[in-house]
Amino acid sequence: MDKILEAVVMSSYPNNVKQGLVRRVIEAAKQPMDSEQCWSMLELSTKLYLTGDTKYKREIGKEVLEVYGHYHPEEFEEFFNVRFLLSLLQEGYGPLGKRSHYVLDYIQLGLQFVLESPSASSIFSLLRIEVLRKVCERPSPKQCAKISKLLTQHPQCIPTGKHQLLFCQQLIRCIGQFQCVSEGEEEIMEFLEQVNKVSGLLQRIWRTQTSAILPSLKELFTIISSTEEQEAPSNALASVVQFVPLELMDGVIRNLTNDDSITDVQMMMAIGRMIDWVSWPLGKNIDKWIIALLKGLAAVKKFSILIEVTLSKIEKVFSKLLYPIVREGALSVLQYMLLSFQHSHEAFHLLLPHIPRLVASLKKEDTNSATSSLEQLAELIHCMFFRFSGFPDLYEPVLEAVKALPIPNEDRIKHLLGQNAWTSQKNELASFYPRLASKSETGKIGLINLGNTCYMNSIIQSLFMASDFRHSVLNLTEGNSQPLMTKLQWLFAFLEHSQRPAISPESFLSASWPPWFTPGAQQDCSEYLKYLLDRLHEEEKTGKRIYQKLKESSLMSQAVEHHYLNKTLIEKMFGGKMMTKIRCLKCLNVSSREEAFTDLSLAFPPSDRNVHGSTSILPVEEIGPQFIEPPENAGQLMGSPWIQRKAPMASDHADPSVSVETLGFQEPGEAANPIGGNDVGVDAAKDPLSAFGEQACAPKD
Fold first, then answer.
1. How many alpha carbons lie under 13 Å from residue 333 in its C-beta half-sphere?
2. CA–CA gap between residue 266 and residue 226 (Å, rounded)
3. Which terminus, N or C, of the chain has the lesser number of Cβ atoms within 10 Å?
4. 460 with 335: CB under 8 angstroms?
5. Residue-wise pLDDT tens digits, 621-646
């Protein structure tokens, strides 16, 4: 009968024809037959099952085995003996040898027919040893899944005693080496199913043997904390953690964080790899374990580890919000990482370029998961805005992206920030994070030098310290017609409200950069001031001209008209008129010239000047200043009158006059000593008006 069956299976007949013939052979096998015929049929079915090159041949082998196991149990038990199984497990079968992939399936198939036989206990003992040996050989995910399936169906084959603990540890080692070799959807789903079978076996063992859990977790930590592995362990290890009872979490975390034998490098490696687990789909409680370990490290003040891990992993965690299957866990971890990282804006700013794209993607997805995540993300972003205010140029794209989403109230924000901070004592972090610094004791904010930009920083700080101008800029209504003034308003807002020691004026520099300046080179601050004030003045004038045209083409109220036809802010704050009079020494005729200015270049004569008889220059006391009338805001005299400028600004607008016949003089060969260059004169800044008056009006000098 075995020859007939083999001939049918190997023939070239269509499968439906073969199936009919095979069915007759199988029906005949249900009848009594001698032992030799049974052995021949069992050998043929084993050969078909283990070496068949098609699924059809393996199915025929399986059917025959099941028939003989059911109808000829004695012969089957005699055939399915310990020696035969040992040979299969250690040497494989036929020409394929150890490369035969179906040995474990074959054993699982045959076990169901010998469970009640006298040889069952010997077979189970053999399998308990052999599955441990197999696992120690690091089989593939597919073979590991077959072992797990076998042991799940036949728990009598699970190693016992010390061997059981070793088996759990070695199984975790196997999972740590699992890799999905294909990117196809079907292959990925198959891989996930295989991993779940293996981790499910661990769960089954832990339920009946809870004493194996902690040693298993210790082995897991050893794997993920290793610094010697060339390849990172598989994220499939996340599937192990999900089955650890949560009531053990506090004790496990406490033991880890207080274990002096674990170095900071090992701990950093372990928590970094655990954070990577957020990409593992279908894992439960993984985010809870990650957050618990982060909190545990904060409790023992391991801030250097937390800082390094957060900065290196936060972008990866954020990217997982794009995938619904891992979104919930990734968002929980992201929330804790950001809300706890309150000593610096660095972690949050790493995410700024990615937020608008993610928000757009979640809006497009339009699912309950996406909607919920958007609301939580918006709340998190507003918490970060509140904690690290002072970067409107960086935050503008993000604000635009989340403007339609709910804004949490201040109490909610403070609650979230208060319950997640690593520590309330900022100085506890200082030694771990050298970049952490607080506001100066003076209460003033510095400007970072962007490469020989002290000329710009000097001007910005001088304008900021002119209180009336600062208040006017900060109170301006933001408008698209004055982009440079808007950026200056932002910069002043930083200098007014930031808690940092210094800020970077990079955005303002790029907006106010004179086109003829050479990048990275030193420049004259008075030249920069002239360009800046001109730009601000012309921007506002342009806006006024637009409104003037609107007025001419439509009816405008008198109040609106008055508002838009007023002088520009630059004119009101720094504008004036200078009248220069020249008197002829012969006819005594005086010619005068009037010009607008926004700053004055002053020359300070030496204090020990003695005027020798000169017929060309009259002494100051004789023709000196007729009057000096300060502008509307005396404290704002010309903005920064001690700053040298190459040329006065021309303007068509009048302001309070300063009538001057001469502003001092110099002897032949003496050079004027204007204060200028790239530095602001600090001493002169104490009282510019009085300093000006003393120089110009002194009886002798």
1. 32
2. 6
3. N
4. no
5. 444 444 444 444 444 434 333 333 33
